[in-house]
Design goal:
Blueprint: H1 6-16, H2 24-31, H3 34-43, H4 49-60, H5 67-80, H6 84-94, H7 110-122, H8 128-136, H9 139-144, H10 153-156, H11 163-170, H12 199-208, E1 212-213, E2 224-225, E3 235-237, E4 240-242
Antiparallel strand pairs: 1-2, 3-4
Helix pairs in contact: 1-2, 4-5, 4-7, 5-7, 6-7, 11-12
């Protein structure tokens, strides 16, 4: 038992929910165990953003789903869904694994954007590698960071698009520069920041993300790989060597 004070319970819930509601603090004080509350929240499945978006459409009697309906559905879940910790984590992830409804390619797809947010909610408590795997295969992310349909040099005569390759290292994982265990910037003997990767790493990573296409034209189904359009030549990324891949029936 934690022996929580009212102030401690309030501070804890303020950090772990999208907003404290009437009775929340009293309930936590009754449980008197923050770990038990966390376990309960982790096991609570969140409502579907897609379903709530379609509910917004139904309630308005409209024939077309809009981005406004999707945003209103998000507020419905953020404020009233029982899985408050999952909603809080999904929101935090949405500020890192960013996509935008103002993007011209994504603006016409409110339901599919809601599906993308459902991925963040669904995998909020999985390991980050699993989450990133599903985000990488999302056609919403594929279009936002221009990785869908990325082709190798052998097909186009130009190097593959580097947008997603750069962002997955700069924003989603490593960051630009190395840091110490306490989070402070690591510096070399000359007082300069130590880069985590260089342009060659980005170029080779971009070659990894070739040959991915939409599945049946869907903006919500995971993208599928076509080995015929994947750069199968040897690559060197972050000091790791990746040998040439065997691709059958590649002309």
């Amino acid at each position: 038992m934690d022996g929580l004070s009212y102030k401690q319970a309030s501070k804890f819930l303020d950090a772990g929910t999208m907003g404290i509601k009437k009775g929340d603090i009293e309930r936590l004080l009754t449980i008197n165990d923050r770990n038990a509350w966390l376990d309960e929240q982790i096991s609570t499945q969140c409502a579907s953003h897609v379903e709530q978006t379609l509910y917004q459409q139904q309630q308005r009697g409209e024939s077309t789903v809009t981005q406004e309906m999707r945003v209103c559905a998000w507020f419905d879940l953020a404020l009233w869904d029982d899985a408050q910790l999952r909603q809080r984590v999904a929101f935090a992830l949405s500020q890192i694994l960013v996509v935008g409804d103002r993007d011209a390619q994504l603006a016409p797809y409110p339901v599919e954007l809601a599906h993308y947010y459902d991925l963040l909610s669904q995998y909020a408590f999985e390991d980050y590698k699993t989450l990133l795997y599903h985000i990488t295969r999302s056609p919403i992310m594929g279009h936002f960071l221009t990785m869908v349909g990325n082709l190798p040099y052998s097909e186009t005569g130009v190097n593959p698009d580097q947008n997603y390759a750069r962002e997955i290292m700069q924003l989603f994982t490593l960051g630009l520069n190395k840091v110490n265990e306490d989070g402070t910037l690591a510096i070399d003997p000359d007082g300069n920041p130590i880069a985590n990767y260089d342009d060659a790493d980005v170029e080779n990573m971009a070659r990894v993300f070739t040959g991915w296409f939409m599945s049946n034209g869907s903006m919500s189904e995971p993208m599928v790989a076509n080995d015929l359009y994947h750069d199968s030549d040897a690559k060197s990324i972050l000091g790791q060597e990746f040998p040439r891949e065997l691709v059958l029936n590649k002309s």
